[in-house]
Amino acid sequence: MKPDIYEHFHQDEREFVDRAWEWVVNAGQYHEVKLTDFLDPRQRFILETLVNRHPDVHAAFEGGYADAERVRAIIAPDYRDLEGEDFKIKVLSITSGDQKLLELEHGDYMGSILGLGIKRSKLGDIHVIESGCHAVVSEEIGAFLNLNLSQVHRVHVMTELLPMDKLQAAETKLDTMDITVASLRLDGIASDAHRISRTKIVVPIKAGRCRVNWKVEEDPSTNLKEGDVVSIQGMGRFAVLEIGGLTKKGRYRVKVGKYV
Q: Can you give the residue ranges of the RNA-binding S4 domain (predicted)?
């Protein structure tokens, strides 16, 4: 790895940068084709950045639907046509006759799947829908999940593997709130969004458990802007939807939306 590439990425991202650069080099020099696990938006950005540095390599991305957040990538020599490539993605349909199914949330489904020993990188987006859940999964774990996932948060469920064209994508739901803050600092906005003290919100941020736009952010004084997505491990995530004018007391009017 050329050391100058590291300058553009956080230290915690170096392991992924190394792996991604190896995929790119192998495609360009050894004509290898690589199908990755699911990437989050930050990992996709890193991979696209590295692919663009190599003149003989290109990549394609697929998460099952147009607005997918998590996607698999195929990295290949530039002479290979990637249109129509099989990204080996399936839909795991989860349903139940138990009315308690309607109370289940995104985290319940993900927790139950990960509880079977599945790595997060094998899962794409998880859609909570009226009939239950449609989880985008890599083909290689589909049969295992179909056989072994029988319960979600104490609710007995039934599963079925479906092709991608049967996916029912859920609309993103945000619980919006209007707050006023003295500054646009991360810790100030996050403490109001999660309704806890600034002293408490600083702890996970400094511990590296906070991401802004999927990039680790350890500086509580970092200023946020419209469109930023902030996630804090164990607390969920929120988006900065709008930054308005100042109040008479000189505080910023900010609208945030918590993902539900």
A: 184-244
For the segment 130-186, what is each residue's pLDDT rounded down to a tens digit?
A: 999 999 999 999 999 999 999 999 999 999 999 999 999 998 889 999 999 999 999
DSSP string, 186-240: HHHHHHHHHTS-HHHHHHHHHTT-EEETTEE---TTPBP-TT-EEEETTTEEEEE
Specify the DSSP class assigned to residue 163. Answer: -
| pLDDT per residue as tens digits for the range 108-133 | 999 999 999 999 999 999 999 999 99
In a domain, 83, yes or no: no
Domain boundary among 139, 166, 193: 166
Which of 150, 166, 182 is the C-terminal boundary of a domain? 166
Alpha-carbon distance of 226 to 240, in angstroms, equals: 5
